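Lab manual, section 2.4: Encoding a predicted structure.

Procedure: take the sequence of the chain (127 residues), apply the prediction step described in section 2.3, and record the output as structure tokens. A sample record is shown.
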Amino acid sequence: MISYAIYKLIHVVGVMLVFLAAGGLVVAAMSVQASSGETIRKHAWWKKLAITHGAGLFLVLLGGFGLLARLEIQGDFPGWVWSKIGIWILIGAGLIPVVRKPNWSGALWWTTPLLGAAAALLAINKP
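Recorded output:
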């Protein structure tokens, strides 16, 4: 059986990977904006960023649901869990608008940390 501490480590590593990928995506989008004719999908780091983002989201889910199991939260989830799931869907989907409209990357730069802070507050306080 996997311990609470290991699930927490998995979750935190996933969070770090997602934020690393989001920051890299913003920088890549800004460099694409500066050079005309290039799309973000042709950027040298695109594949690494997409893989890091996906792997991070997977680890966030794996660790998060493992933590819920260790906290013995089953069946009907409390509101804070649903809120965290919604926040992580927004963070995960944040990749899409920046790929289609690189000039929106500035919004991702500010909203991702704010959403992350909201998710952390929900996890800490469990309102």
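Check your result against the sample. The helical segments are 4-34, 46-70, 79-93, 95-100, 105-125.
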